[in-house]
Amino acid sequence: MAVSVAEVLAMGSATLYEASGLGCDLDPAFRPAWAGARLAGRALPVQAAAGDNLPLHWALEAARPGDVLVVDAGGAPFGYWGEVLAVAAQRRGVAGLVIDGGVRDTDRMRALDFPAFSTHIAIRGTGKEWPGTIGSPVIMRGRVVHRGDLVVADEDGIVVLPAASVDGVLEAARQRVAKEDVFMRRLREGELTLDLYGFRGLGNPLVAELPEDVAVAAERAGGAP
Predict the structure, then answer these.
(1) Global pTM value
(2) Which of 39, 116, 147, 177 allows an S-S link to 33, with CB 3.0 to 4.6 Å?
(3) Rounded CA separation 94/68 (Å)
(4) Long-range contacts of 194-202, Cβ-Cβ distance < 8 Å, separation of 24 or more
(5) Per-residue pLDDT tens over the stretch 28-67
(6) Would you state the torsion angle of the CA atoms of residues 26, 32, 35, 40, taken in this order, to the nearest 10 degrees?
(7) Share above pLDDT 90 across residues of the chain, in percent, rounded to a whole number
(8) Pick from 170, 192, 172: which is nearest to 183 by CA?
């Protein structure tokens, strides 16, 4: 699976999701920790206990450059991750973090340009009692994530593509992008989406007539009332 990070980030999560035909999107509760955050890389699944971030420290030892830590922390509102771990992760070449739990130090992560996606922003401290699991599949709010899956996240959402499906999805996404480029040109030239997508055959709405006095006033004004 040879993936251009720049290409998949340019495609975006929405295009990849639509091109895939798969149930590969994560719950919308996952949001970027700072505006503009986006990431792409191989999934390194991590299982943590509620309020315990010891597995995240161990995960940095196991991580390879280009990995995205995908952490199931049960959605608990603790600050599992902040500036310290972000700096350490960047030194290891980690591409970012997706966690069902909380992060903090969001301004500092923005300054570092370290992308993190979480279900909470939280400052509540964590313990260090259970080392967790690293590399085994985790379930992120109903979606199973395996090591090596492709994770792409931006402000629209997060997709996790099974490693075996990536090449096919990328080719379908490229074709979709090329088709949409043509559609956008035609829209800018004045075509309606009704005609472009063939929606007219789906039925016509009941459209109320504009009162004559309003219509005349609008026509004189050269636009809508």
Answers:
(1) 0.89
(2) 116
(3) 6
(4) none
(5) 999 999 999 999 999 999 999 999 999 999 999 999 999 9
(6) -70
(7) 89
(8) 192
